[in-house]
Amino acid sequence: MSDEDAGSQAAASEPSRPPRSPGRNLVAAIASGVVLAAWIVGTLLWWNWGFIIFLMACVVVGVFELVRALGRVGMYASYPPAGIGGSLTIALSFWLADAWGQLAGVSALFGGLAMMVIAALLWRLRGPVSGYIRDAAGSVFTVGYVPLLLGTLGLLLAQPKGNLRVIVYFVLVVCLDTGAYATGSLIGRHKMAPHISPGKTWEGFGAGVLLAAVAGAIATPLMLGGAWWAGFVIGLLVAVAAVTGDLVESSIKRDAGLKDMGRIIPGHGGALDRLDSLLVAAPVAWLSMLALVR
After folding, report:
1. CB distance 90 to 53 below 8 Å
2. Per-domain residue ranges of the chain
3. Which residues cross the membrane (predicted)?
4. Looking at the chain, which terminus has fewer C-beta neighbours within 10 angstroms, N or C?
5. 19: pLDDT confidence band, cut at 50, 70 and 90?
6. How far apart are CA 42 and CA 40, in angstroms?
7. By the 8 A CB rule, do 66 and 59 touch?
8. Which residues contact 5 (CB under 8 A, 6 or more apart)?
């Protein structure tokens, strides 16, 4: 056998390697990011209901992505109660909070969530008894993770100067991400959670949290008329919550064996890939601003 034939036979016997996945499309990522930012800022400044529609769309898509991810680990959550019921509950709670105050909005949000849980438990009764607890738990987790957390943004929007409060909330999360990424890339040495997110470092975490706190101390007096120290505390709390949310979403993806939760946003992945840190930070921003900014 010639050397050429032997090389061909050896190459044929080797297992075929999967093709490398292409990197993210930078142009598409920038374009979709600009469109999303323009919609969010534009609706917050001129049409608040447009932002609520955006939150409703996030629930519809985010719940679908989460149900799909849970299905990969054998938890078959019910989509309609959380996806449809959650979006309608967000609209109702904002409308009542805007018209009658925070107590009415909170009552509508948690009342709607309770109805979603009941609907999910009933929906699962159509299937076999085997696996009922597992699937019901997945449905309750879905209700709590997406509609509940996002619903608090509607309540934040209904507070006095609510549109500016939501903008400050976004600014704090962006400052956290920017500070953490820049510092972690330059001087990050100590891994924060290597089994979940290998790129995160304690140096980046500290710098991001500090930058968010300083941004809160500046933005709160200028935009909301609150005390600087209140803004500093809000920035700290929101930043820590945002990092927690990022780690939670990364854990879900790793457990489900997913790189991205979806592909609906060109260059970015799924809705939950962009909402990861924002989800957990939303109720923290709502409560801290409600308590500290009058």
Report:
1. no
2. 26-158, 161-294
3. 25-41, 47-67, 79-97, 103-125, 137-158, 164-183, 204-222, 228-248
4. N
5. very low
6. 6
7. no
8. none
- Residue of 49, 27, 50 lying closest to 38 (CA atoms): 50
pLDDT at 24: 60
Report H helices in 101-227.
102-124, 132-143, 149-157, 162-187, 202-219
How many residues belong to the chain? 294
pLDDT score at 284: 98
**Structure confidence by residue, pLDDT tens digits, 75-85:** 999 999 999 99
Strands 191-193 and 197-201: antiparallel
Distances (CA, A) of 180 to 168, 183, 192, 199: 18, 5, 12, 10
Interhelix angle 48-71/79-100, nearest 10 degrees: 160
Residues 30, 267: contact at Cβ < 8 Å? yes
Among positive and negative, which fits the CA dihedral 209, 213, 219, 225? positive
Burial track 156-187 (b if 16+ CB lie within 10 A, e otherwise): bbbbebbbbbbbbbbbbbbbbbebbbebbeee
SS3 202: helix
Residue 25 has pLDDT above 70, yes or no: no
| Cβ burial, residue 143 (10 Å; 0-12/13-18/19+) | buried
Two structure tokens written together for 3:
């050397």
Q: Which residues contact 134 (CB under 8 A, 6 or more apart)?
A: 74, 75
Nearest one of 242, 119, 125 to 179, comparing CA atoms:
242
Cβ count near 251 (within 10 Å)? 14
